[in-house]
Amino acid sequence: MTAGIDISDLSTTVRPQDDLYRYANGPWLERTEIPADKAIYGAFHALLDTAEKNVRGIVEQTAADRHPEGTEARKIGDLYTSFMDEDTIERLGAGPIADQLELVASIKDLGGLVAALGALELQGVPGIFYYGVDIDAKKSDEYIVYMTQGGLSLPDESYYREDNFADVRTAYVAHLARMLDLAGLADATAAADRILALETRLAGGHWDRVRNRDVSATYNKVDRAGLEALTPGVDWSVWLTNAGVPESAFEQLVVRQPDYLTAAAEVLREVELEHWREWLSWRVVRNAAPLMSGAFVDENFSFYGKTLTGAPELRERWKRGVDVVENALGEAVGQLYVGEHFPPIAKARMVELVANLVEAYRQRIDALDWMGPETRQQALDKLGAFTPKIGYPDKWKDYSGLDVQADDLVGNVRRSVAVETARDLAKLGQPIDRTEWLMTPQTVNAYYNPRMNEIVFPAAILQPPFFDLEADDAVNYGAIGAVIGHEIGHGFDDQGSKYDGAGNLNDWWTDADRAAFEERTARLVAQYNALESTDAPGNKVNGELTLGENIGDLGGLSIGYVAYELSLDGGESPAPVDGLTAAQRFFLAWALGWSTKAREAEAIRRLAIDPHSPPEFRCNAVVRNIDAFHTAFGVSEDDDMWLSPKDRVKIW
Which family would the database say this protein is a member of (predicted)? Predict the structure, then answer.
């Protein structure tokens, strides 16, 4: 290993000029088997495994130490213990959901159904919509409730209508019957057919994922009277009371898909009550299945694991237990994780990298030939208002209100939902908490939050292959530098660019500049629409669904290269290392971060619902548009990676 690139693991049969992805990852792809408990595996997932093992060590040690009652450490230990206590869980069988199933069985009319939907929502059983508190996209100094479509148990509305998912629907009905039978519900086979029919009606009102990406179309503010007009027959006071939501929370809210709510209300009124009881019983069973006895866990995995993703084996129990702890007490675990696994020097280095990426964006925006001065100044103002968050929050969540019992797994999870719901609702009417993080420090990921105009990099992603304190700058800029650039780029993608520097939906573009921008993004859509997944032959990328992430990748890598050049501070590029120039190491670092293999079912699922392109295209399709890549590897018209300069898309 030299300077972060292991040249002995590069392909000797594939040229980078023909396929950068397989030049960098070919030997890895040939020798690597996807672990039996995974549907997809690669460099990113290996880092996830490392973080998961580190968290396991923390959680198991915390459980063994038996900290004082009421402390966060004790809650971590007791929650994990409650999940690992298989004897108690097996003895209880379906007992933990008996009260919820009784509630459903007691529904006598539409009002009772609405009341039950609210009560179960508070216990973590999702109904026909989702709701939550977020920053108002047009008043970014206020919180507001957002409501979005729901009610489906398959991954996406397309699974209910497209022919290529017919086999999945057949398997789903069989799964429904088995799960309902396990829970002791009558007429399970016929009920399964009726549940699919009900969900298919709900799916018919859903917006598809491309339409849902439109942040303007999905911003529809209504008052309480407007909500009631959208949903005739729904007694919202009943739902609010049972869901533990104050009436004041729904004085104004943003409905993301108004016509879905109208369609769902129609289904509520028209579908027989008995069919709704069957569906809601199913939702209860599905929600608790991973927490109950082995028969429920195995059947749940058989469909949601094997059928939908292709993974042949259930994840080990300790891994699932760690997930439960992280979902309920994520920042309590994160505080311990940071103390053990995030050196201060890593944060200091990231601060420097972020500063160089922001300066690189500033220079590129200044030099754009397609953007006029008015829009340019607004873009620079927005860039100047970016807030980076690195490693971990300055203020940690308080879990003092969460009651955890070492012998009550399902109860613990329910109480966690109630605590987080109360935490969410308490934001209404309060100043924006700009210290809040939407990911835990041990999460291997990063994000851009347009309503706070912030870029966030949890500690766990700041490790090889994305960030290596021992690697040279070319490698780090090609890896974590491009990730930083990607997240900044989301502020200027097709949807993020609709927000101004204060986090408000605000059209700061001139018509001419927006048209020039959309001409470029349309060309990018066309490029990706032509790409066919090698993990799922015959299935193509949806260029519109993936547009935002593709813009992020293209901008991130392009700007990452500019930032690397800035880091040289006018000096000469370093000498080649092991025959690789600095520019080549930069692009290889990007390629190595995307080494991935996926099972066919999972590849198909992701093509349907994931706004990210398949990893091989996050490598190859991006670099073909970048002049510096062609120069670095001497790509010519005779090479497969060649893209004519006139066809290269340059946005930022």
Answer: Belongs to the peptidase M13 family.
**292 in Cβ contact with 83 (< 8 Å):** no
Percentage of the chain beyond pLDDT 90 is 97
Q: 3-class secondary structure for 91-139?
A: HHCCHHHHHHHHHHHCCCCHHHHHHHHHHHHHCCCCCCEEEEEEEECCE
- Name residue, tokens 């399709």: 621
Return the CATH architecture of domain 95-291: Orthogonal Bundle (1.10)
Regarding pTM above 0.90, the answer is yes
Q: Architecture of domain 14-53+325-393+437-647 in CATH?
A: 3-Layer(aba) Sandwich (3.40)
DSSP letter assigned to residue 496: G
- In the chain, which residues fall in CATH 1.10.1380.10? 95-291
Count of residues for the chain?
Answer: 652
In 3D, which of 357, 320, 629, 631 has the Cα closest to residue 490?
357
Alpha-carbon distance of 334 to 58, in angstroms, equals 10
Give the pLDDT confidence of 96-127 residue by residue, as tens digits.
999 999 999 999 999 999 999 999 999 999 99
Q: Tens of pLDDT along 377-397?
A: 999 999 999 999 999 999 999
Average pLDDT value for residue range 636-650: 98
The answer to whether 80 and 317 have CB atoms below 8 angstroms apart is no
| Side chain identity at residue 635, one-letter code | V
Residues of the chain with CATH 3.40.390.10: 14-53+325-393+437-647
Torsional class of 553: left (φ above 0), alpha (ψ -120 to 50), beta (otherwise): alpha
Using CB atoms within 10 Å of the CB of residue 638, give its burial: 0 to 12 exposed, 13 to 18 middle, 19+ buried. Answer: exposed
Q: What is the DSSP string of 1-17?
A: -BTTB-GGGS-SSS-TT
The number of CA neighbours under 13 Å toward the Cβ of 28 is 21
Query: What gap in Å lies between CA 459 and CA 332, rounded to an integer?
Result: 14
Residue 42: partners with Cβ closer than 8 Å, 6 or more residues away: 594, 595, 596, 597, 615
| Closest to 484 (Cα-Cα) out of 294, 356, 301 | 356
State the Cα–Cα distance between residues 391 and 461, nearest whole angstrom. 9
Q: Distance between CA 289 and CA 286 in Å, rounded?
A: 5
Distance of alpha carbon 305 from its chain centroid, rounded?
18
Answer yes or no: are the C-beta atoms of 542 and 529 closer than 8 Å: yes
Q: How far apart are CA 284 and CA 301, in angstroms?
A: 16
Please state, in angstroms and rounded to a whole number, the distance separating the CA atoms of residues 380 and 362. 6
